[in-house]
From TrEMBL:
Keyword set includes Transmembrane: yes
Keyword terms of this UniProt record: Membrane, Transmembrane, Transmembrane helix
Tagged with keyword Membrane: yes
Source superkingdom: Bacteria
Protein's UniProt name: Fatty acid desaturase family protein
Fatty acid desaturase domain mapped to chain residues: 56-300
Transmembrane segments: 30-50, 56-75, 87-108, 154-176, 188-205, 211-230
Amino acid sequence: MKDLHSFGWYAARISPHLPKKAFKPVPTRLWGGLAYLLVVVAGFLTIGLFSFNPFLYLGIAFIIGTSFAAMGFLGHEILHGTVVRKAWLRDLLGAIAFWPLTTGPMLWRKWHNLTHHVHTQNDEKDPDAWPTLEKWKRSRFLRWIYKLPHSFRAFSSFALLTLMFTAHSTKCFVMYIKEFNPKNQPKVWMQLILPWVTWIGLLFIMGPLKWLFAFFIPLLIANAIVMGYISTNHRLNPMTEVNDPLANSLTVTVPKWVDVLHFNFSYHTEHHIFPGMSSKYYPLVKEHIKKVWPELYHEMPMSKALVALWKTPRIYYQGSELIDPHQGHLYGSLGNGLDVANIQYRKEQLTENDEILTKALKNGKNV
């Protein structure tokens, strides 16, 4: 693997080439958020006040769901302090943006800003990192999952993207609630409870059928869109001892109009170098990275990244490879032999101890 550098090392070398305005908050991003909020409210009123064909409701649900997702992307930007700097206003606006995804601003900053960004692709400290072979060995559930055919696992994992953000947010709440100052824990709880009070209240106001189209289906759609991006951010990249965004992060490409609608969320390597910069300026960062480190930069169309995720397992072997332990199939990661245009597996690099352990576990023996 190449020599690794921290995100600060890259930032120090790129910063002099960027305009000063790139390091200032961009409050005009809030106009986009207001537009999405108005679309959501209009969708709620249309579903709640009128009786239409269910297929029309489904179309409205899709619009609401895509708006939920876009509000989440803006909330992510707001809570990094790139839209407004005042802490109380940042948290208020971030809470509103994340309200549909039921994630509170204090939890998000703890989970995402202070942990994921600081410890990206660290198998012990990054809450978003996928498990290693060692963790697979210790988990009966993972060992059972990986006895299933790869095609079934891939289909199931993609289907579960419709629930994954909400589920992972709940998991992170359980993980981190005790790490908050006891004085702040009631606020964190309220930021979890109040959105659900809103959405359950909407259920009683609208009734189950209309609520299904106004909130539940849109939530599934929002989860799928958000997780479509998040799944490609790091899951094809290696784990790294140094938090090097050019090694452990992937930028995906989408049509320009999608970038506009999603606040440039596709620029993920750039975000990990400058998490405190508005994504409005990430195209400038990308331009400089490709000029100076073109051989280290990872980008691909989102469609190709998703296909690569479908074709590869999600268990890490020795940090730089992915393994299907039941089959003993090894795949490279980005920068370590993974060719997304021609994904191949190999077997010869398992150590003798790993061969013994995986065979024993595959046969149901205790180790």
